[in-house]
Amino acid sequence: MAFYKISNPTDHRICVVMVGLPARGKTFISQKLVGYLSWLSIKAKCFTFADFRRKCGHLSPHALEFNKNTGVINEGVESNDEDEDEEVIEEQALEQIRKWFQSENGVIAVLDDTNITSNRRRSIIEFCQKNNIQPIFVESWSEDEDFVQCNVKDMGRKSIEYKHMDPLEAKQKVMENINKFKKNYEPLDFEKDSDLTFVKLNSGSKEILINKIQTYLQSKIVFYILNLDLKPRCIWLSRHGESLYNLEQKIGGDSLLSKRGEKYSSKLPAIVKESAGLKEKDIVVWTSTLKRTQQTAQYLTNKKLQWRALDELDAGICDGMTYEEIEEKYPDDFQARDENKYEFRYRGGESYRDVALRLEPVIMELERQENILIITHQAVLRCIYAYYMNIPQEQSPWVSIPLHTLIKIEPRAYKTKVTTIKANIPAVSTYKVKGTSHVGEAEDVYTKPYGIIKDTSS
Ligand code: F6P
Fold first, then answer.
1. In the beta sheet, which residues pair with residue 373?
2. 198: phi then psi, degrees, rounded to nearest 5
3. Catalytic residue among 328, 339, 394, 441
4. Cα of 251 from ligand 1 centre, angstroms
5. How far, in Å, CA of 49 to CA of 123, rounded?
6. Percent of the chain, pLDDT > 90?
7. CATH 3.20.20.140 fits 13-227, yes or no
8. 235-447 fold
9. Which residue is closest in CA terms to ligand 1's atom 2?
10. According to CATH, where is 3.40.50.1240 located in the chain?
11. Where in the chain is the domain with CATH 3.40.50.300?
């Protein structure tokens, strides 16, 4: 399916320009948007001006001065002519974006900066016009104090500017910075900016106002942002318990659980409870329509939902076979799949790309929901995991997602946290090693589950 593979003629260059005060979720939106687009094979990149200024050696984290002409913050610039310096830096940073579009055939650049003055935005528009780029402004604002304070805390702890400081001092500095920006903030305006394509998102209440969205890609961006809930939440991922087919090393099918798989299903409620510390009513369980995932969820008394989109990758004519049998009967297909596992489509079945595309509604719904436990299958979990962890497509089919393991994911603006909780119930490995039909967990660094690993044996 080449539907999302945009070859990028020049009319498909979009620059998403973030607008808003610090601590309004701009970085989170930017990172999530780029992750989502990349996951859909749309070439996207996030450009952070603060990073660029820092690289130019123009930043000292503490001395923050607002430059009224350019609408950006000068942070400890030591030159005598700060305005000129800022303009040069701005131009160089925009030049990076231009180069990326040109040399890398980029489709969507996201400019993660405050861009709070009209002047600043107009200079970005000029740049876009010159380079045949469509600008779309995304303003994130909020008067919800809890939401802002939560972001202030996150910035203080994780952003490069503040993370070396004592938490209280960092919080104070972030607040000082916000107050400086507030004085010069010119929100996007339906009258003054009526010619611009923009979105105003109230991140606290999720109210969204839209002006002049014209193209398919612009509306795709808006639809995603509209569904993003910026509140902190967790997602738990688990494969079904070990199945009878797993014991026989067969792929696909709709078999029941093995004895050890049953044991995992009976232990799962306790593991989830310990990891989540939430009441059952606060977590919804999603399964596929296949028996082994429903059997795994049988002792969970949470609300449950079945999704056909969560069914395992369809192995077509190879369904029910072992890898050894496939290698013997279809050696060319077997080799071709190892060479490009993401794109390889089983005859009469699916590829990883097909699975990712059918998962799009699941991902969209996940972004809207609060706490979800997904019980599904190896290939499907690889795709979901790759989305949250920004794993490149070619690596995603090789990620190790062992049986009898619960993975907790906490998406955050600066880094997604992963905790892997082992149920301590033995199970076979279903990991097919590249280049052979052998099965066993791999050594490669990209194939290991990431993050903190916990064991429930203690
Ligand atoms: O072996 C278990 C299984 O879920 C199969 O049903 C499925 O075909 C396979 O894993 C997907 O993994 P891979 O893409 O590595 O073959």
1. 236, 285
2. -150, 165
3. 328
4. 6
5. 15
6. 68
7. no
8. Rossmann fold (3.40.50)
9. 251
10. 235-447
11. 13-227
pTM equals 0.86
C-alpha distances in angstroms, 165 versus 59, 161, 414, 427, 455? Answer: 16, 9, 17, 46, 33
Please identify, by atom number, the ligand 1 atom nearest to the C-alpha of residue 377: 4
Q: What is the pLDDT of residue 230?
A: 79
Residue with CA closest to ligand 1 atom 16: 432
CA of 252 to the centre of ligand 1 (A): 7
Mutate to test the pocket of ligand 1, among 323, 333, 393, 430 (most ligand atoms within 8 A of CB): 430
Summarize the annotated binding site for substrate as residue ranges.
239-246, 292
Helix (H, G, I), strand (E, B) or coil at 99: helix
Closest atom, ligand 1, to C-alpha of 398:
15
- Is 328 a residue of the active site? yes
* Cβ partners under 8 Å of residue 144, min gap 6: 203, 204, 205
Query: pLDDT-derived band of residue 199, with 50, 70 and 90 as boundaries?
Result: very high
- 3-state SS, residue 32: helix
Q: What's the pLDDT at 426?
A: 95
CA dihedral 259, 263, 265, 271 (to 10 degrees): -160
Q: Which residue has the tokens 């876009």?
A: 128
Q: Give the pLDDT band (50/70/90) at residue 134.
A: very high
Bigger pLDDT: 157 vs 7: 157
Ligand 1 centroid vs 204 CA: distance in angstroms? 41
Higher pLDDT, 298 or 65: 298
Query: In the numeric block, which tokens belong to residue 269?
Result: 């409620």
pLDDT of 56 over the 70 cut: no
Specify the residue with its C-alpha closest to ligand 1, atom 7. 251
Which of the following is catalytic: 240, 312, 367, 404?
Answer: 240
Report the separation in Å between the CA atom of 384 and the middle of ligand 1, taken as the mean of its atom positions.
15
Question: Which atom of ligand 1 is closest in space to residue 341's alpha carbon?
Answer: 14
Nearest Cα to 222, choosing from 302, 156, 163, 137?
A: 137
Burial of 316-328, coded b for 16+ CB within 10 Å and e otherwise, reads eebbebbbebbbe
